[in-house]
Design goal:
Layout: H1 2-16, H2 34-52, H3 70-111, H4 130-148
Helix pairs in contact: 2-3, 3-4
Length: 151
């Protein structure tokens, strides 16, 4: 047992000293070693910036690369930024659809005398869009009840 207990700290020390690489990114196979790590890091930062609607500026992460790894970092950043923007646009389209469907469902339920329950329409939203759907449903329901009362 003593051999096992002395081996565990050595293993943990060895693991802690390993350089952590960002997760794989599309196209990262064209680089190796530090270039691949820079590409992956650039892709990750670019994706996050694009998804969050920030300006495209790989140089804000100057501390992540050096003169030998700047080009792979920049290339990864640019591709990641485009992918992040695409994802953000797709999410916005999904939220807009959920908002419109939630409002319509709420108004229809109110006009038909149904008790308010956005969960009745689970097929119309996802986990990502449920909050948007529910808020719009509540608004549609209020306005539908007001219209039914002639307000």
């Amino acid at each position: 047992m003593k051999l096992l207990s002395t081996g565990v700290p050595a293993l943990l020390l060895a693991l802690a000293s390993c350089t952590r690489m960002p997760p794989p990114a599309p196209g990262s196979g064209m680089y190796s070693g530090p270039g691949e790590a820079a590409y992956r890091g650039g892709y990750h930062h670019g994706f996050q910036d694009g998804r969050r609607g920030r300006d495209s500026d790989y140089e804000r992460y100057y501390y992540e690369y050096n003169t030998r790894t700047e080009k792979p970092f920049e290339k990864g950043y640019d591709l990641g930024f485009e992918a992040g923007e695409d994802q953000a646009e797709a999410r916005e389209v999904d939220r807009d659809a959920a908002q419109n469907q939630g409002y319509d469902a709420g108004r229809t339920d109110a006009e038909n005398g149904q008790p308010p329950s956005h969960q009745r329409h689970r097929q119309a939203y996802t986990l990502d869009t449920e909050t948007t759907f529910a808020k719009a449903y509540e608004k549609g329901y209020r306005e539908g009840r007001a219209a039914a009362r002639g307000e």
